[in-house]
């Protein structure tokens, strides 16, 4: 059964949000709380305004969401912690080792860790999670965790504090993937429930520093801290219970209302403000954060099975037709970086291949001419009576996607494309727009370790087949499988460099910019927020000042 908010809190937040825009107009910049420095203190309640809370709370199906992931990051722990540079450090797994060919790993668990119902996070619990992450329960509507190694074979509890994990082939990326935002530790009691019961967030038992106090579907989630929590990653300066008493995630779909509410003191954090407003917020004394996550850059995965992108020349014209400098200067700020590959530059093993897709409108025009697409009197191109057309679907998980796509549409029209833009809300988008269902899919995908790309690029081993090539490109298959099966890190890095070059030379992927998917506007009274390798804000160490 879904529980409701404390009535008083809901009333206070609702009234505050309705008044926020008016209040913000009346407040001068100097009226915003500036907070102060000082020693961290315990206590206080934090209100986080978010544009959505998704359409399900089944852990496997929602943990990688840009929205629900915020909640899971406080209710659950992970076996390892991964920071924004890809550095792995102990968490619930206090140490690990592997055999020489990276097909068997041994995890040693931290003693004394418990789920919020008091049961231990022991080897049996970890095995139950690993099995479900890898396989899911498709017949019950529970999906495997995206990007979990497809080479997973089995795991066993050697003793209550030791887990042995086996893979069918070398899997160097296993340990980093344990820090991926999908790899959340959930009580076996929750995992044993059918999907319909897992969809009720109140049934989810984690080992994190907060528990679910109440929730309302597509409206709000209230978390309350666990007083007995004492096993945070050692890289955090703070240990013991969280400092902030409660965190309320409140859905406010209108971006201006979210930011106005923070400006007026009605809320503490607004998710996904406009990038162009960040400088003015900072000038007023507010904190902004634009952490980059480890993963793919923002760009288009091109479906090579869909005309006209079955022609390499058209794909390459698309690459060279995008003016990325104009996109950054128009939509973004200097916090954003140009893409150098299809991987973010902070991903270990990413290399610079930007020359292969550099903006060159004349080259784009030449490629389309060579492919037989002829300009008409109105400037649009056609071939054998068929217009050169494409429909863009802005990705609602990226706040700037619509603005970026509108500018891209102008740039593509300049080289002869007919472009339409079709937008959906989050729920409709996930139902109608999938990789392979549209010619261009706008990617916003985080990864922890580049070895997981093998599960994306082709359909080998039930891969996601991002580019619609199946296994028809032997070099792509060879490189992807070689990276996945590498047991030597140096050899894998060399293959990864070659893979990046091949994907971009074949124009399977059209990079736009390095991605900042999660943008935060924060009250100056909130201090010591941390951001992990997938750019989620974590309030375990945070505290609220005056």
From TrEMBL:
CDD domains in UniProt: PBP2_NikA_DppA_OppA_like_15
Domain of life: Bacteria
Residue ranges annotated for the Solute-binding protein family domain, each copy included: 88-441
Record's keyword annotation contains Transmembrane: no
Annotated InterPro entries: Peptide/Ni-bd, SBP_5, SBP_5_dom
Keywords (A to Z) from UniProt: Signal, Transport
Signal sequence range: 1-31
Family per record: Belongs to the bacterial solute-binding protein 5 family.
Name of protein: ABC transporter substrate-binding protein
Annotated organism of origin: Pseudonocardia kongjuensis
Organism ancestry: Bacteria, Bacillati, Actinomycetota, Actinomycetes, Pseudonocardiales
């Amino acid at each position: 059964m879904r529980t409701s908010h404390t009535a008083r809190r809901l009333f206070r937040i609702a009234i505050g949000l309705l008044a926020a825009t008016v209040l913000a107009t009346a407040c001068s910049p100097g009226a915003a709380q500036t907070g102060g420095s000082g020693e961290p203190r315990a206590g206080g309640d934090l209100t986080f305004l978010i544009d959505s809370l998704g359409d399900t709370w089944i852990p496997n199906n929602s943990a990688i969401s840009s929205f629900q992931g915020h909640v899971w990051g406080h209710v659950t722990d992970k076996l390892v912690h991964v920071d924004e540079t890809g550095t792995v450090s102990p968490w619930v797994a206090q140490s690990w080792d592997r055999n020489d060919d990276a097909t068997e790993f041994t995890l040693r668990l931290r003693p004394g860790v418990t789920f919020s119902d008091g049961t231990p996070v022991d080897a049996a619990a970890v095995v139950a999670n690993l099995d479900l992450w890898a396989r899911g329960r498709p017949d019950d509507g529970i999906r495997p965790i995206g990007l979990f190694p497809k080479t997973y074979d089995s795991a066993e509890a050697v003793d209550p504090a030791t887990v042995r994990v086996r893979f069918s082939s070398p899997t160097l990326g296993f340990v980093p993937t344990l820090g991926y935002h999908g790899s959340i530790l959930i009580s076996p009691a929750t995992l044993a429930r059918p999907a319909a019961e897992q969809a009720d967030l109140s049934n989810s038992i984690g080992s994190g520093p907060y528990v679910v106090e109440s929730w309302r579907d597509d409206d709000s989630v209230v978390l309350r801290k666990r007083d007995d929590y004492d096993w945070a990653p050692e890289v955090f300066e703070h240990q013991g219970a969280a400092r902030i008493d409660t965190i309320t995630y409140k859905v406010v779909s209108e971006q201006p209302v979210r930011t106005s509410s923070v400006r007026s003191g009605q809320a503490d954090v607004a998710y996904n403000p406009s990038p162009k407003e960040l400088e003015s917020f900072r000038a007023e004394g507010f904190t902004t954060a634009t952490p980059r996550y480890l993963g793919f850059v923002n760009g288009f995965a091109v479906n090579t099975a869909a005309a006209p992108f079955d022609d390499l020349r058209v794909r390459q014209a698309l690459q060279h037709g995008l003016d990325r400098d104009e996109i950054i200067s128009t939509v973004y700020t200097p916090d954003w970086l140009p893409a150098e590959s299809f991987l973010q530059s902070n991903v270990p093993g990413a290399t610079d291949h930007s020359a292969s897709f550099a903006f060159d409108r004349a080259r784009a025009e030449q490629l389309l001419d060579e492919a037989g697409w002829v300009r008409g009197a109105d400037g649009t191109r056609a071939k054998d009576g068929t217009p050169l057309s494409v429909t863009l679907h802005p990705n609602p998980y990226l706040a700037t996607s619509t603005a970026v796509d509108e500018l891209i549409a102008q740039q593509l029209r300049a080289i002869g494309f007919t472009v339409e833009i079709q937008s959906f809300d989050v729920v409709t988008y996930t139902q109608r727009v999938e990789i392979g269902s549209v010619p261009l899919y706008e990617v916003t995908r985080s990864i922890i370790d580049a070895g997981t790309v093998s599960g994306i690029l082709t359909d080998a081993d039930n891969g996601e087949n991002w580019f619609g090539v199946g296994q028809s490109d032997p070099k792509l298959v060879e490189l992807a499988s070689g990276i996945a099966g590498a047991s030597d890190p140096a050899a894998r890095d060399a293959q990864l460099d070659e893979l990046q070059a091949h994907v971009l030379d074949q124009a399977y992927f059209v990079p736009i910019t390095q991605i900042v998917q999660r943008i935060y506007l924060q009250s100056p009274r909130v201090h010591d927020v941390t951001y992990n390798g997938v750019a989620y804000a974590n309030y375990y160490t945070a505290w609220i000042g005056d």
